[in-house]
Write a structure and sequence with these properties.
It contains 16 helices and 11 strands. The protein has 379 residues and is an alpha/beta fold. The strands form 2 sheets. A 7-stranded parallel sheet has the order 4-3-2-1-5-6-7, sandwiched between helices. A 4-stranded mixed sheet has the order 9-8-10-11, with helices on one face. The longest helix is centred in the last third of the chain and has 18 residues, at 361-378. The chain has helices spanning 12-23, 39-49, 66-71, 79-87, 105-113, 124-140, 149-158, 189-192, 202-210, 212-225, 263-271, 285-288, 302-313, 317-333, 339-351, 361-378; strands spanning 2-7, 28-35, 53-56, 75-78, 94-97, 117-120, 144-146, 166-173, 232-236, 242-248, 253-257. The protein folds into 3 domains: 2-146, Rossmann fold (3-Layer(aba) Sandwich), CATH 3.40.50; 150-301, no CATH class; 314-379, Orthogonal Bundle (Rna Polymerase Sigma Factor, Chain: A), CATH 1.10.1740. It is globular and about 55 Å long.
């Protein structure tokens, strides 16, 4: 039985992780639960799964409920230091990270340094500091497993194969809610949050609407698989059946296909190297009938191009892109800037940044801080 720590247990991914635990109680035991702010749901999860340690990132949310957590027999931690403690809990065999944003970066580093295998759903740490994370994982001989459906697809296609046989990697995108839209003037928050295929949190849903999610995923894939960014392609695939493809040097292609259910890549990362019996509907290609692919328009979706640019420039620039994007998306959701204002903010911040090559973790965190401050000032 594998003991897991779930960092971000009350979010969309975290809830699906716990659903898999419910379906396979003979395979998984929950040792740690950590969340950002949803104390009410976290307490319900604690009562059901009986972890040894529980953490709430926003300390003020503990007021009035800390005694309830302790009554369930678990140690209570809070804040950034609490997340680090939860991520490095000695008894965990695997730590699953699904906190949205850059807040998970330091805890992931600490988990790897503690010799823990990690599975990562939140792409921001792999964007900001992916090269450092992968290097540290190699030193410690621990696994960094992707939960993103596209990166899980690439991983499954590449498993057991030599990277020198790879010509390019292909990430697919449904195209988001604005695939066929010509003008983005007057786009509302409600429209941008209406994703045609996936139900996700607001930040990643907006990233899907701007295609910034693919820009970030290109950086993530380059870091995860140590491949030059210009050998990673994005294709629009509205059926969202093919999640990733790998083209090999002999012209052969391998594709990973599945229904649009995040529990499939989550379960594979949790059970690896095993494959557990699936409990979800099977993909019916007869019902799908046709598969369509098209190239994305970088002029209509400049955020995708900015992802490539950030990785080409390297160093601290991916962290700057990520921090500025989080700030700009939050501003759009709050009605402070327009939809088009997101990419314009990112361009201004990136243009004003002086890249530091081969940055340390401290350099990356400082670049993140600088980018958020600069983006806020430029709104």
């Amino acid at each position: 039985m594998k003991t897991i720590a779930v960092i971000g247990s009350t979010g969309s991914i975290g809830r699906k992780v716990l659903d898999i635990v419910r379906k396979h109680p003979e395979k998984f035991r929950v040792g740690v639960l950590a969340a950002r702010q949803n104390a009410e749901l976290l307490l319900k999860q604690v009562k059901e799964f009986k972890p040894r340690l529980v953490c709430l990132f926003e300390k003020e949310r503990l007021r009035g409920c800390e005694a309830s957590f302790r009554k369930e027999g678990c140690r209570v931690a809070a804040g950034a230091e609490g997340l680090v403690e939860a991520s490095a809990w000695p008894q965990a065999d695997q730590v699953i990270f699904s906190l949205v944003g850059a807040v998970g970066l330091a805890p992931i580093f600490r988990a790897i340094q503690a010799g823990k295998n990690v599975a990562i759903a939140n792409k921001e740490p792999l964007v900001m500091a992916g090269e450092l994370l992968i290097e540290e994982a190699r030193k410690r001989n621990v696994q960094v497993l992707p939960i993103d459906s596209e990166h899980s697809g690439l991983w499954q296609c590449l498993e057991g194969r030599r990277m020198e046989t790879v010509q390019k990697l292909v990430l697919t995108s449904s195209g988001g809610p604005f695939r066929g839209r010509k003008s983005f003037s007057g786009v509302t928050v409600k429209e941008a949050l209406r994703h045609p295929k996936w139900r996700m949190g607001p930040k990643i849903t907006i990233d899907s609407a701007t295609l910034m999610n693919k820009g970030l995923e290109v950086i993530e894939a380059s870091n995860l698989f140590s491949l030059d960014v210009d050998r990673i392609e994005v294709l629009i695939h509205p059926e969202a059946v093919v999640h990733a493809l790998v083209e090999f040097v002999d012209g052969s292609h391998l594709a990973q296909m599945a229904i649009t259910d995040m529990r499939i890549p989550i379960q594979y990362a949790m059970s690896f190297p095993e494959r557990l019996n699936h409990i979800y509907p099977s993909l019916d290609l007869v019902k799908v009938k046709t598969l369509h692919f098209e190239k994305p328009d970088h002029r209509r979706f400049p955020c995708l191009a900015l992802g490539y640019e950030a990785k080409r420039r390297g160093g601290t620039m991916p962290a700057v892109l990520n921090g500025a994007n989080e700030t700009a998306v939050a501003a759009f959701l709050e009605g402070k800037i327009s939809f088009l204002g997101i990419s314009r903010t990112l361009e201004r911040v990136m243009h004003s940044h002086r890249v530091k090559a081969r940055p340390s973790l401290a350099d990356i965190l400082e670049a993140d801080r600088w980018s958020r401050e600069t983006a806020t000032q430029s709104l």
